[in-house]
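Hey,

The postdoc asked me to send both predictions to you directly instead of through the lab channel. I've kept everything plain text so nothing gets mangled by the mail client. Protein one:
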Amino acid sequence: MLTEEQKRRVEVENKAILRNVQSIRHRIIVLSGKGGVGKTTVSVNLAYTLKARGYATGLLDADVTGPNIPKMLGLEGELHSHEGRITPLLSDNVKVISIANILSPDQPVLWRGPMRSKLLHQFLGYVEWGDLDYLVADLPPGTGDEIITLIQKMTPDLAVIVTTPQEVSLIDSRRAINMTKEMGLGKIGVIENMSGLKCPSCGSRIDLFGKDGGRKQAEEMNVTFLGTLPIDIQARIMADNGKPIVLAQQDSEIAVAIGAITEKIVSMLGDESR
């Protein structure tokens, strides 16, 4: 049972989250059933493609125990707060929040679920997001506490499920799709990542993880198929060097594919392309 003081704090927190969320026109969560499928790469490049199209955009690193977004952006510096409000960091005019900018680089986050969810409440309710067109949240893999917290509190307009064509990945992405359906999300899209590798020597396409698994799954489960993204060595190099591929190499195959996916998302959410 909660004490009266605890109930009061929960009410204050919920009001702060509601107030912040209402100033964000569209809220997108990016998730996967398992790790290692490129979910964070998708989140980062989606956010920066939206920004490049003229939308005011924020990026929330909700993967509390594996926060990699600052590394992929080369984003250093500590978070600051004033009168209980947290100021997000800016990277190429995208507002970014991550626990990685609170911790020392090698410090593990040895927190149980309630503590991780509490941090996400802070990121949703007490960060100065301002008036945004889009907030993209990169969620941890699986279907745990943080994901439930984000869906309940953030009330997203769209869930983007990232999978590879491999059956092992598809098994887990089915669970993620069903979870978002059970939690009442009306708009769900699937991205098939790591969909083929272009041989740098001969130019032939190699389907390392299979082919069309994400597309078939989207059709079978009656959700939107957003598109495929190829394996791109430069995207990995750019991420390691702190630069989104959509900014560093705008004409690359993967950047063009992310652009097409972004246009579908914008259309799904009722915005006109800019």
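Protein two:
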Amino acid sequence: MTALAVTDISRNFEGVQALDNVSFEVASGERRLIIGPNGAGKTTLFNILSGSFAASSGWVTLFGRDITRLPAYARARLGLSRTFQITNLFFQLTVLENILLALQAGKGTASPVRRLLRGDRALNARAEALLEHWGLNELAGHPARDISYGQQRQLDILLAMAVEPKVLLLDEPTAGLSAAEVPRVMVVLRGLPRDTTVLMIEHDMDVAFELADRIAVLHQGRLLAEGGVEAIRNNPQVAEIYLGSD
């Protein structure tokens, strides 16, 4: 089954062609990596998929449903979740409170976090179980601003997963991490459930090649190449344009 289909997507910013007729399909449960040099159009593509930007032309379907003109919140309700290059946390709140907010949003309710902490035992139990599953339970009472950047990235992914998305968009989850922090985030990424389809932008080729089922390469707003890890690794155009071949 096709989870996400992108068909002839283009985006023009005042004469600058950021994306030019990009098309590809992502199968249900697939790990699809999007790579490409700076300015290739990767984040613009994610903004269109998540509903932050409108496409100039083309369309997007989620499990066969046309979502091209749906706002971001409607796409989220259909099971599309996203992280960003910069962590999207409530830094003044604790790690547990951040999870509670994500779970609360998934329920479509709105009440103060402090009230949740006092009154919703089921929600608290779910939040604590998630933190334990992802190995962050010891940080539950720490303000998000006080944990390491690598832990913040892990928390950011957990917030996106808390709503049990069908399709998860990860925008450079290892960006800015130290060499010591990357392995901890990789554990989280490898542990994502297979019933969640993952589309990920990644700049680190080692990470991309380890996690990907298939890879799509963007260059100057166009889809340069698409295929399995070995096909992309051995593609001379990719080596020349993106991987720095001599």
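Summary for protein two, as requested: The first helix runs from residue 42 to 50.

Thanks,
C.
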